[in-house]
Specification:
single chain, mainly beta, about 130 residues, 4-stranded antiparallel β-sheet, globular, 12 strands
Length: about 130
Amino acid sequence: NSKTSNVIATGELAGGETIEITELKRTSGDTVTLKFALTNTGSEELPLSTLGDGDWYNWNLTRIYLLDLPNKKKYFILRDSEKQPLCSQGKTRLKAGSRLALWAKFPAPPQTVSKVTIEIPGAAPFEDLTISN
């Protein structure tokens, strides 16, 4: 099935929800775009505020970051000129059994850095993921 064919890493949140990393790519403006999907495998609605800042109904993904271990540097989600994070955000809870595609933009590490670790709150680190060009 084409939805899962380009999954580059999978993991789980503490509540058993599945995370599928689908893209980690250098993009224009010296940025890296992360795309991933979250599937609520549980029987309860999932408040997405666990992944970032905000409350149960108004959330963003700002607690996610990229980790460049060789240079011991964290890359946090970019913000625009109005300090809004460049990532999925909104007022939603993930219903049981449903899947949601999410994204976030980060500053790009130097070209010499080809692999990073992705830190998503509540999940084990996604280590040594290759940044595609």
